[in-house]
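Appendix C: a fully annotated inverse folding record. The material below is reproduced so that readers can follow the format used throughout the book. The structure is listed first as tokens, followed by the designed sequence.
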């Protein structure tokens, strides 16, 4: 009797093992098919967004792309967001100017918006006194005024000439990268001019957007927040000029394999080759 029970026990275990093995195999196959299906749909979605952006920008006289993600100067690889910016610029045509913000000397914001005596950001006295750097007279920033080597004027000069401006950013630790953050702080005088100083909104007819690229955390929230910030600045912010791409949705997945797979997924999503 003991032998019979033992044999039944072994048989049941073997049967369960076979069933579970088959189930796992079937499940993995279906999961792979589902992942492939959703990846295909997602790639089509991103290609659609890209096509709409390109067609929209082709009708503009001048477009400004501002890339903010960084690599070591000796690294031959370019950030994903920069590669995408270059790809879009090539598709749009000769009316696009691309500026690598990280390559410029841009000093930190001096915080004149919150001094003890009040908000002193962008007042007329802070105007950059150089006709070459500030032909419109609208560049009014104390950090530019106080630091002769500051190169923010290279951005503002082109910004005032452009109809459309698109920021390309990487998402790092759930926020925009430090180069973008420094830039947006340094451009506060654009917003302050009309919100606090009660002067004209000199960028009301310009449209802008932001393209954010990240690995696994908070990209959509970053995008929504920065679109709101750009709206506060006084830009028009049409949806066609903004989108977020993020490889994973699990912020705890920091595996080496996921980082190695992300570049090919990016290439497939946008039909581009990383350099």
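Designed amino acids, in order:
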């Amino acid at each position: 009797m003991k032998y019979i029970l033992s044999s039944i026990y072994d048989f049941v275990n073997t049967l369960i093992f076979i069933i579970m093995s088959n189930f796992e195999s079937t499940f993995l196959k279906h999961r792979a098919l589902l992942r492939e299906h959703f990846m295909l749909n997602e790639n089509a979605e991103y290609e659609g967004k890209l096509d709409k952006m390109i067609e929209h920008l082709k009708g503009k006289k001048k477009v400004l792309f501002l890339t903010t993600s960084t690599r070591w100067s000796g690294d031959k690889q370019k950030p994903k967001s920069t590669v995408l910016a270059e790809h879009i610029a090539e598709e749009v045509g000769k009316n696009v100017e691309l500026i690598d913000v990280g390559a410029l000397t841009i000093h930190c914001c001096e915080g004149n918006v919150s001094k003890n005596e009040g908000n002193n950001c962008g007042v007329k006295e802070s105007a950059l006194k150089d006709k070459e750097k500030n032909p419109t007279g609208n560049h009014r920033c104390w950090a530019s005024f106080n630091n002769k080597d500051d190169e923010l004027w290279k951005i503002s000069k082109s910004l005032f000439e452009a109809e459309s401006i698109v920021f390309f950013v990487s998402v790092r630790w759930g926020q925009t990268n430090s180069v973008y953050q420094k830039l947006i702080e340094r451009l506060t005088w654009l917003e302050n001019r009309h919100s606090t100083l009660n002067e004209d909104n000199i960028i009301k007819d310009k449209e802008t957007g932001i393209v954010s690229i990240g690995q696994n955390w908070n990209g959509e929230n970053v995008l929504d927040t920065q679109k709101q910030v750009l709206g506060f600045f006084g830009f028009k912010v049409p949806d066609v000029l903004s989108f977020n791409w993020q490889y994973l949705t699990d912020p705890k997945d920091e595996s080496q394999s996921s980082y190695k797979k992300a570049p090919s997924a990016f290439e497939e999503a946008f039909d581009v080759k990383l350099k």
